[in-house]
Amino acid sequence: MFPTIKGIALPLASTVAGLALTTTTALADDGITPVPVKVFVGSMFEIGDNSGDRAGEFQHWYESYWQDAEPVEVHGASHDLYCNDAGVCGSVLGMGKVASSSSMQAILLDPRYDFSDTWFILSGVAGTPPSQGTIGMVSWGSWLVDYDLGHRWAPQEGEPGEPVFQPRKGYEDIRVYQLNPQLVERAMALSKDTPLEDSDSAQQYRQRYPDEMARRAPFVRTGTHMTGDTFFHGPGLSAEAQYMTELYGADDYVITEMEAAAITQVIDRLHGTDRIMSLRGAVNFDQGNPDETTQQHLDPAPGNTAGGFAETVANIELVGSHVVDDIVEHWDQWQDGVPTQE
């Protein structure tokens, strides 16, 4: 059976984009104008409800922007979409490359919404090397690097001490993205002085690490965000991540996460990358301290976890909301591009 729109049969070979275009035409014929979206915030998971219980990545955003919004089901997305009257929309996209990017594509192709001028914030928790960050830190991504899309081999099968990764040809356009430098600079200017939350448990945990950066109180910074479905861990793989950023000409690796490069690839196909922001808060270090093995750090004994999760998810929204609110309040300056800093 062929799919139909308003009784018109469509060939099975029609592309999704063509289907969305036809649906948009149908909506226009009915006098329905797509809702213009000024800001879209995508989180990757929520622990329970959107409000009133232990907060995951989405709850603080929801409580700030969508308490009164009706949930909208988007076909093909993993969770409902929420939009407020100011043109700020958001959704939980799902964890990992496939779940998050497929949800993002479903939302972007929904003809009820116009994303042609949208600013995107890809938001969530992450890890950080102790030489570059600390628990509770929040980072705006300057570059996104895909941890995969290459060749790897066992260390014993290569030269001792040499990297065990090399890029695979054919992925040059999707393995690394430089995000709009003017946008990153503007986001930092708006949010760098945000007072961030901290906890006693996180403060105590930091002291296990000798790195000056790891012992710092939470702060806001920029740097490369490394995207990989594999939860790579330990000083060796952390060094490999840094090697990859240098190989690709990116900034220092400061964040390990699972989704941003994949979501960016989807947005890029339809709207480019100039309006994409990657915003991550560090809830763990990507390696153990000098007194524990990598396995011990991955499976800590009771009382040896990092702490600071609740404070970090709060910090992400505290930092990101400065940018969201500025975009909405000064839309006449933001609609056509990043405003010139005063």
TrEMBL record:
Q: Which GO terms describe its molecular function?
A: catalytic activity
InterPro entries named among the record's database cross-references: Nucleoside_phosphorylase_sf, Pur_nuclsid_perm
- The segment annotated Disordered runs over 283-302
Alphabetically sorted, this entry's keywords are: Signal
Keyword field contains NADP: no
- Which is a Pfam family this sequence falls into? NUP
Q: List the biased-composition ranges (Polar residues).
A: 286-297
Leader sequence segment: 1-28
Q: Which GO terms describe its biological process?
A: nucleoside metabolic process; transmembrane transport
Q: Which PANTHER family match?
A: PURINE NUCLEOSIDE PERMEASE C285.05-RELATED
Q: What is this protein called?
A: Purine nucleoside permease
Q: Which organism is it from?
A: Halomonas huangheensis
What are the leading ranks of the lineage?
A: Bacteria, Pseudomonadati, Pseudomonadota, Gammaproteobacteria, Oceanospirillales
